[in-house]
Amino acid sequence: MDTKKSLMILLSNVFVWLLAATVVQSCLPSDRAALLEFRAKLNEPYIGVFNTWKGLDCCNGWYGVSCDPNTHRVAGITLRGESEEPIFQKAKRSGLMTGSISPSICKLTRLSGIIIADWKGISGGIPSCIENLPFLRHLDLVGNKISGVIPVNIGKLLRLKVLNLADNYLYGVIPPSITRLTSLSHLDLRNNNISGVIPRDIGRLKMVSRVLLSGNKISGQIPESLTRIYRLADLELSMNRITGPIPASFGRMSVLATLNLGGNLISGEIPGTLMASSISNLNLSGNLITGRIPNTFGPRSYFTVLDLANNRLQGPIPTSIAAASFIGHLDVSHNHLCGKIPTGSPFDHLDATSFAYNACLCGKPLGNCKK
């Protein structure tokens, strides 16, 4: 009798232990509730990404939800409207999601990644409470219809490495607090309606390698502090309202490969340092740049793209350009250039459109020069 009683007690304890282990390994009920609140504000009728969001354990089988294996707290939401995953291949289409991002997402206090990208129809604002997620490293909301302003205290996200808010309808200024994101490696705010100036102390972002701000309404001058970000490889400021000169120190940056300043109101002359630098994609087209093309090309000059079109440049095409190691695409059209086009590489593969609408350029591929 005692043996049977002991066995019952043992089995009971094992059952309690297994039940407790199951509870521990499931997601927190509060995290599950927050996810369902978040889900309730969104509508996705074609792919069915939310069809798996059922059952008690949101850490197991919920599409796009990932959890910390130790704490079983929700650590990531990854919902992309453009994907090669089987669920999209079965639907044979990209996603379209409407609704808004619920502030309930901020209840998931252990989130390190939020990717809600390329759904084309999500509107409303970015919940300001998002700045209170201390573990957030990746915030990607590209390709939606999100409007409003960037949260003013976004600089509180000290662990943030990626901030991608491109291709939305955001307005207002770049928050000054953004320069406190000293872990940031990727900043993409392209194709919004952002205005105001680039923060003067943006150079504090010492870890950033890409700053992409094209297609906005940004004004003011290019901050000199940008040229002190030694990791900066890609800087895109095109199609804005930026004025003033081009800092010569861009040409002294060791890893800067892309400098796109096209379609602004930039004035002054082209710094000679840009022609013999690490920059391989240089777009200065569509500005108010005057003076001559610098005669500072050399063996270090390697350009996949060199676009100087639609400015107010004068004088000849410099002879030193023949010393460049490579120039793939060259466009100096729509300026006031004059003189004979140099022969040989890179000019032997360029057509007349690269030199059209100048004052008096001549020679191949244009007409012969008058004697």
TrEMBL record:
SUPFAM superfamilies: L domain-like. Residues 1-26 form the signal peptide. Keywords: Glycoprotein, Leucine-rich repeat, Membrane, Receptor, Repeat, Signal, Transmembrane, Transmembrane helix. InterPro entries: DNA_repair-toleration, Leu-rich_rpt, LRR_dom_sf, LRR_N_plant-typ. Residues 29-68 form the Leucine-rich repeat-containing N-terminal plant-type domain. One of its GO terms (cellular component) is membrane. The keyword Cytoplasm does not apply. It is a single-pass type I membrane protein. The keyword Methyltransferase does not apply. It comes from the Eukaryota. It is found in: Membrane. Belongs to the RLP family. This is Leucine-rich repeat-containing N-terminal plant-type domain-containing protein.
